[in-house]
């Protein structure tokens, strides 16, 4: 399984036969090395409806004839744009050719701001994602604060790899993300949603070193880099 970090919260996961991308934000992402046209995937998974998580979803979906999987509101929004969609909601699981995706809760907000209309479009509840792929369980927390039910998620699911935001300001910061990793009982952690902009600048390496004090593995992947996860 190959995992590519495209910066911010954009993660691409590729198996031998399939590829998915989570929260595609490339064209206006100053950290991204790839462009939307470079992405080849079968599925697009969205955690919530902020522009820095859905900006390139429609173009990638149409270029690849890929299916967008998201909450009911988000799925309808992209369906109206001519995209293939699969609606899902918190607690629900959808089977995939290589495993499954389940939506979990997240504590954040979810709305698309249309500046020209001075309007905010409600995009449903924010979510996290639990993925089972090739016998592994991956958890993408989306944008979220620390919340107590992370303990329950960790108790119910044997999480091999967690993608956790550490940027602070709009999500939990590194200190809370250490607690999150412990509560989730994650074997490995990759930090996301940091250093894209100055206002969410954090030391990813220092965060990983802190996790090691609690026996939790992890590493920093720079935008454009990939790892092989076995």
Strand order of the largest sheet: 6-5-4-3-2-1-16
Structural class: alpha/beta
SSE order in H/E notation? EEEEHHEHEEEEEEEHEHEHEE
The stretches of 5 or more residues where confidence is low (pLDDT under 50) are: none
Rounded to an integer in angstroms, the radius of gyration calculated over CA atoms is: 16 Å
- Tell me the name of the CATH homologous superfamily: Ribonuclease Z/Hydroxyacylglutathione hydrolase-like
Helix content: 10-25%
Distance between the termini: 6 Å
Mean pLDDT: 97
Number of helices: 6
Structural notes for this entry:
The chain has 230 residues and is of the alpha/beta class. The chain has a single domain (2-228), classed as Ribonuclease Z/Hydroxyacylglutathione hydrolase-like (Metallo-beta-lactamase, Chain A), CATH 3.60.15. Helices cover 20% and strands 31% of the residues. The chain is built from six helices and 16 strands. The chain has helices spanning 51-54, 57-64, 72-79, 150-156, 174-184, 204-212; strands at residues 2-5, 11-14, 19-22, 43-45, 67-71, 84-88, 93-96, 99-105, 111-114, 119-122, 127-133, 136-140, 161-165, 188-192, 217-218, 226-228. The strands form three sheets. The chain has a seven-stranded mixed β-sheet with strand order 6-5-4-3-2-1-16, covered by helices on one side. Strand 5 (67-71), helix 3 and strand 6 form a beta-alpha-beta unit. Helix 4 (150-156) packs parallel to helix 5. The radius of gyration is 16 Å and the shape is globular. The N and C termini lie close together (6 Å). It comes from Ammoniphilus oxalaticus.
